[in-house]
Description:
Layout: E1 2-8, E2 27-32, E3 49-56, E4 63-67, E5 72-77, E6 79-89, E7 92-104, E8 109-115, E9 117-118, E10 125-132, E11 139-146, E12 152-156, E13 162-163, E14 166-176, E15 179-188, E16 195-204, E17 209-215, E18 252-254, H1 263-268, E19 271-272, E20 275-276, E21 278-281, H2 283-286, E22 296-301, E23 309-316, E24 333-340, E25 355-363, E26 375-383, E27 392-399, E28 402-409, E29 414-418, E30 421-423, E31 428-431, E32 444-452, E33 461-468, E34 474-479, H3 482-489, E35 508-518, E36 520-523, E37 528-531, E38 538-549
Amino acid sequence: MILSLFLSGCLADKSAGYEESETSIETGNARLKIIKPEMTLFPAGLDNLTYTAIFSSQNKPEVTKTFSPGGTSIPLEAGTWEINIKARSGAMIIGSAFVNKVKVVKDNTTHVETELLPAADGINGTVQWSVKFPGTVTAAKLKYNDAGKIVDSENDLLTAATADNDAERRIGNIDLAPGSWTFSVKLENISDNATAEKTMTVVVYSGLTTILDWKFEANDDNEDDDPDPNEKPDPNEKPDPNDDPDHNYEPVLLSADAAENNAYTFIRSLLSNGKRVFDIEAPDDLNGGHPGVRHIRMISDPNFPNSAKDVFAFDLHRNNQVTDGNATGDNRRQRVELKIDHTGTYNYQGNEGRSFIYRWKFKLPADLALSTNFTHIHQIKNERGDAGEPVISLTARIVSGSPRMQLIYNPPRYNWVDNNNFEESPIVYLRNVSGSLTPYLGEWVQAEEKVAYSSDPSKAAFSIKITRIRDGLELLNYTHSISNYTAAAAGADIVKFPFVTWRVTNEYGRPKWGMYRVVYSGGTADAPENPIAGLKDETILYADFEITRLEDIE
């Protein structure tokens, strides 16, 4: 876990001959920022974390600040400070960190990184373990030790308590001091005198319970055994995502069924591993706008190429009777979108190191009304942290008087501290005036997009291809490369603003499809002004959303 602190008052430039004065009493404007630790390293459910930082400096008053993961601003006198940080879940301290000799200098910036460790306040944490194995096991041992090997213990699982009268499962609880612990389970005679062993390292937190769950199958035998060279794979056998949490995920396909009445329920009923894959954002579903009118419908399109097809109709309304508001609050904009559900299955969320292929079909209306402002019909949108603009968007708008299909990339904001403190990044049009919208209008098209999510410019990958289904005409074909990006960036500093598909402060990423457009050019989110002329009710048709997760990148 990395705790990042950004102090805006701070880093002295020695090369420029700057001499720091520790006796100065001038006040620096310090900004404290903490990046929320990876939840996988905390026990589940700790979503109410707060942090307290105590700043101490010789001959200066102590400064205490409580803040959320969003960060805080705090004035500090110039000088050298010590920082003690406590992470709390409610009233319980679960983590702490100490930073020594932080030098604060007026009108400069110091960046401090430190590891947030489990708090050792004398209260043990609990490890609740569960092991499931075949009944043929004749010996089973659970071993555990701490990082310093001060404790090195072993339990005989065959004498442990059973759960729910299941002879093949053993459970137990162990109280341990906060810290990093390694657990291993070793089974003997699991099959033909073979052995199997699995190891797990976990962090134990004061007063909290960490759950460990092992599952062994009869074929979990010794890895040194040679495979049968005559054995042939079953072509009909499909991988179980539970067997390998990182690979072998089945593609997910969402296709419309016009016989179903409620598209919202239908979309949310598609599950993977028992968890929801898709969710929606629609005016009537989230903010009560235009109640009683569903903004995603399922209909049959008799004009789909070759034969009629059930499809999704995404509707936005703008006429004299009703104007749909933005589902997420800013009424200068309208939104109806399908997205990956970030509260559902984790398997299909974008994250550092993950790769996906996204496929879908769509049809823009022949009389689509646009403005010089954006109408996004697809986004790769990472959330939390630096998440103001989509990483990638497929955007329809008027450019130089003509309708265009733009492929837009937004680099990370430079020197981002929070959404009010950053240097704006340039907008990079990967495809702009060369992408006429006319061949799309009134036509069904097929899109295929590949994204490798990475904050490393050498590993981030993106490509998209769009073809017209009626005749196979290629409308858009773009693959990221340094030369392509350099040309598109049009002189922007590509070292300062590199092409990356993951921003280090993000928590999850996902594709979005539908309509997101600007309908007022002025005013505020609650009081929009200057309605954009010429916009009207619109319906965009979509079909066959498919997600394939690929091998993770190293």
